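Supplementary Methods, section 5.1.

A reviewer requested that the exact input to the structure prediction be made available. We therefore reproduce it here, unchanged from the version used in the analyses.
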Amino acid sequence: MWHPQVEALSAAGFRVIAPDQRGYSTGARPAEEDAYQVEFIVQDAVDLMDAVGVADFHLVGHDWGGQIAWLLAAAHPERIRTLSILSRPHPAAFARALTEDPEQPERSRHHRFLKDADAYDRMRVDGLRPLREALETQYVPPEIAAVHIAKLAEPGGVEGAINWYRASGFTGAQTPAINLPTLYVWGTQDATVGRYAAELTADYVTGPFRFEIVEGAGHFIVDQCPDTVSNLLLAHIRQGADGLA
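The structure derived from this sequence is encoded token-by-token as follows.
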């Protein structure tokens, strides 16, 4: 994930930092579930940018990475130049959708599945078949899906990925509105995020906001539509960079 966007942004002259977050990094897979609480992962991002000497930056995130990006932008807006989120709605919008949209709880059923006591074993069935099927039904190209599957097949990979869900008691309902230039991208075939949650996100951005709908795109829009995503990111980041010049 992100390789086409890293190449496109780098070619446009931007320095790009795309870390593997805890659980997905071979060298950073704490065994304890509590190590995956969102506040720790937000702090990981802050510590990383401090370590590389970057005071402020354009922030991009997808899915769980999008959740962390929303929370990082809320906690440290002074460090964010622009915010770009793919698939994951603003946390408060998502929390509302779970109670106001009859379809959203069913779309989010994987959250319940991954919190079950036997989730680790069920995920490993038949060579990570549940993950393979999820990627296939959400239009991820087979060669890219194979990379994701290989990463989770590493020792501790399944536990690391699932612990993001198991550690999270965070509902997001109290997350404040974001007063930053924000791009939110959502695909019409996203099986996990409905239109209601996506459209509610506008209620929680008080800065300049751009909502891009990609027809036919599923949840893994970064993998499915790499050129579309790269172009949207470049346009948004360039506009933000020009505004700060």
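The first helix runs from residue 3 to 11. These observations are discussed further in the main text.
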